[in-house]
Design goal:
Chain lengths: 264, 514
């Protein structure tokens, strides 16, 4: 139906796992995301960083088909998320930040529900659920409803729902927030293995050290725009990512004069 | 502190006028004002004595409304909670008064105040002094009603920690509201008429209504007219003391931690994944019905309401309503479950990530709803029919039950998709229907209206058939009811899943904005 428009785009997309073109979202008079252009090459481990309110979550929500953009396109492996959601969403696993699950299910029930919703065959699903629960150390919570999970456990069960159908691209919004160091290490290992096996990861974070440690490419968002993006070494140059980030975002350097009333 | 919290409440209130919640509040206010007009009409018509009786009756209705409203999700949430303020170094008394002041700032108290001034109008018929006495009486009554509603919310929060307590805590409100709806039974039992508004109340009922706290303002006004100043003082002081006692009880409960929602299941769950996507959604819905304390609370309310509604007339040896028990229960459950997507909140993202499953999602929710509602409704209907041996009611239930179940299953999903209401996300709420139920009161009335429209053709046939004694017409209601139930269940469900498929992200954005 959209052959004419999508074919050249598909060819141009080439090896991009995720490509955002002119993506824009306004809420009332505020432009949360302003013509975002971003290409995440296939096989890369991409970190999206930016200060609070930079538009990371809004961009990623539009990229995976959870929030309708006012303008622009989002393609996953060359498939337009909003034109052909069926095909695009088959290729992506998503961990949204702070959204609910069917809270009255146990972790196992939740994965069974989502796997079936995704159209996975029962025998494959049963094996994967067992393995995911074990690897993510959620087996002990067998009788706990997701409602009773801690913040870190919620992240882990969310990651399990993202991995379940073996997608080619993972889009993870703040995957390490509130996760304990041991679990974080195992999640990092899982993601590294995923990328080594040919998968692509896009994650958002505001922990620069973490992004520097795990990602090979980064994009910096500020006030709804991508101010820079590319291989990590190129973006940060000879400085740390944090220094480069502060330079790009233009955070005011504390002069030491502010808050003089504090502890006086 | 009091001023700060009232300011905060005013700001929240102003914000809440935008969007769906605004409509809900507006609709509620409109209903309340219509009630106010009715009260003024009652207060100014007929003999003063009868007007006093009827004011006592409507004020008792207001009392029941304020007691039961929050338990049924009638907007008990102020947007300001005790938990938000625990870390502030504020004196406890200031905190309590601040929260109380915030609770008094709202559409509900304002509408109640306006409606209750009918009492002043009633007093004016008796003289200047009774009218003047009516003013403090009305103010004290509103103070009492708001304090009572707060006490109800806090009590629910303290006791709702398990399935049995969720079911049991619906009992008093169900008995109260059903009893109010069937108060004519009491009047007839006391030797009065079944049409109290037309024929007046029996004297015993009139006396009882004045003994209830809601009747004390009427007592104050009438005693002022008679010059019985001791009774005027007693009635006014009684209202003030009672309000203070309720506030004290509320303050004690506020310091208790809220009961934690059930977050564990008794057994390790089956490791076999569901048989299909349809079974996956069906299983998820049925588990939610069984594990969500708020849903259990509503189910229990509907069951008890239905039973009290049909059993009460037995007091005056009327058993004709017994077969309607299932029908009443089905209507009550339908009207209190039209917020399926709002109560699931942002969990909708999972459905959106599996495009093409919208139809399955809606249909499985419909089937789950029917599996929850139909068995008790059918069982109660059969039990009522057999127990009462009023076979003349058979065509009525055989026609109306199918249409209510069918249309109900369609309406709950369609209204859920079309009219999302502001509710906290399920993992951010505590499980107290008084605070977390969201503004679902408007939805209840909307659903009652829509169900009435859906059942109108069937009901018309039944009415005409009964009136004309035409059994063909009477029995033709059964196939009409069954067919319209099937058709509405199918068509409304179809509208719902098409709407969901077309505007899923928009619905997610709206339920996520709470």
């Amino acid at each position: 139906m959209n052959d004419n428009s999508s074919r050249p785009a598909e060819r141009a997309a080439g090896s991009a796992a995720l490509r955002l073109t002119g993506l824009t979202k306004r809420f009332g008079h505020t432009t949360a995301v302003d013509s975002v252009e971003l290409t995440v090459p296939a096989g890369s481990f991409f970190g999206l960083v930016g200060p609070n309110g930079a538009g990371k979550t809004t961009s990623l929500s539009m990229a995976v088909g959870l929030l309708r953009p006012d303008a622009g396109r989002a393609e996953i492996f060359g498939v337009d998320v909003w034109q052909d959601p069926m095909e695009a969403k088959r290729q992506v696993g998503v961990l949204p930040d702070g959204l609910a699950f069917p809270e009255r299910l146990t972790g196992r029930e939740l994965l069974g529900y989502f796997g079936r919703l995704r159209g996975m065959p029962a025998d494959v699903l049963a094996g994967r659920i067992d393995e995911l629960l074990r690897v993510l150390d959620l087996e002990r919570a067998e009788r706990t409803l997701v409602l009773g999970y801690s913040a870190g456990m919620r992240k882990k069960i969310g990651l399990a729902t993202a991995l379940l159908h073996a997608p080619r691209l993972l889009v993870l919004d703040e995957p390490f927030e509130a996760v304990d160091p041991v679990s974080a290490a195992s999640i990092r290992a899982i993601l590294r293995r995923f990328v080594a096996g040919g998968g692509s990861v896009v994650l958002s974070s505001h922990v620069m050290a973490l992004v520097e440690q795990v990602c090979d490419s980064v994009g910096v968002m500020h006030r709804g725009r991508v101010v820079t993006a590319g291989p990590l070494a190129e973006v940060r140059g000879d400085r740390s990512l944090e220094e480069r980030f502060v330079e790009l975002v233009g955070a005011p350097v504390p002069s030491g004069e502010e808050l003089s009333w504090l502890a006086s | 502190m009091v001023g700060v919290l009232i300011d905060l409440r005013l700001t929240l209130l102003r914000r809440s006028f935008a969007g769906t919640q605004g409509y809900s509040i507006g609709f509620g206010a409109l209903c309340g004002l219509a009630g106010a007009v009715g009260m003024f009409w009652l207060a100014t018509r007929g003999t003063p004595a009868r007007a006093g009786d009827l004011l006592g009756l409507t004020l008792a209705g207001a009392l029941v409304g304020w007691l039961a409203g929050p338990a049924l999700g009638g907007g008990g949430d102020l947007g300001i909670r005790r938990e938000h303020l625990t870390l502030l170094p504020v004196r406890r008394r200031d905190l309590i008064l601040g929260l109380y002041g915030a609770a008094l700032t709202g559409v509900g108290p304002a509408v109640t105040l306006i409606a209750s001034t009918a009492l002043v109008a009633y007093g004016a018929r008796l003289g200047v002094v009774p009218a003047l006495v009516g003013v403090p009486a009305v103010i004290l009554l509103v103070l009492l009603l708001v304090a009572l509603a707060r006490l109800v919310v806090a009590t629910l929060g303290a006791v709702l920690g398990s399935r049995p307590s969720a079911a049991l805590s619906a009992l008093p409100w169900a008995v109260l509201t059903a009893g109010m709806a069937q108060c004519w039974v009491v009047f007839v039992a006391l030797g009065g008429s079944a049409r109290p508004f037309a024929d007046g109340l029996p004297s015993a009922a009139a006396r009882t209504l004045r003994i209830l706290p809601s009747g004390w303002p009427v007592v104050a006004v009438e005693s002022a007219h008679r010059g019985d100043w001791a009774l005027v003082a007693a009635a006014l002081a009684g209202l003030a003391v009672l309000a203070a006692l309720v506030l004290l009880a509320w303050a004690c409960l506020l310091d208790r931690p809220a009961a934690a929602p059930v977050s564990r299941v008794a057994r390790r769950t089956s490791s076999r994944p569901p048989g299909s996507a349809f079974h996956a959604v069906l299983g998820k819905e049925l588990r939610t019905w069984w594990r969500d304390l708020v849903r259990i609370h509503y189910l229990s309310f509907a069951l008890v309401y239905g039973l009290v509604f049909v059993l009460m007339p037995l007091v005056i040896r009327i058993s004709d309503l017994l077969p309607l028990a299932g029908l009443v229960v089905a209507i009550m459950i339908a009207s209190s479950s039209a917020h399926l997507y709002s109560s699931d909140g942002t969990a909708l993202w999972m459905t959106l990530m599996a495009p093409g499953t919208e139809r399955i999602d809606v249909r499985a929710r419909q089937v789950a709803w029917l599996l929850v509602v139909a068995p008790p409704a059918v069982l109660l209907t059969l039990a009522g029919l057999v127990g009462a041996v009023h076979w003349w009611t058979l065509p009525w239930v055989a026609g109306l039950l199918p249409v209510v179940l069918g249309a109900g299953s369609g309406l709950v999903v369609l209204v859920s998709v079309l009219v999302p209401v502001r509710m906290a996300d399920p993992h951010r709420r505590g499980g107290n229907p008084g605070e977390d139920g969201g503004p679902v009161g408007g939805l209840v009335w909307l659903m009652l209206g829509l169900l009435a429209v859906a059942a109108a053709p069937t009901a018309w046939l039944l009415y005409q058939g009964t009136r004309a004694g035409d059994s063909t017409m009477l029995w033709s209601a059964t196939p009409v009811g069954v067919l319209s139930g099937l058709l509405l269940g199918w068509v409304l469900g179809r509208l719902a899943h098409r709407r969901l498929a077309a505007g899923g992200p928009e619905l997610l954005a709206r339920v996520g904005r709470a």
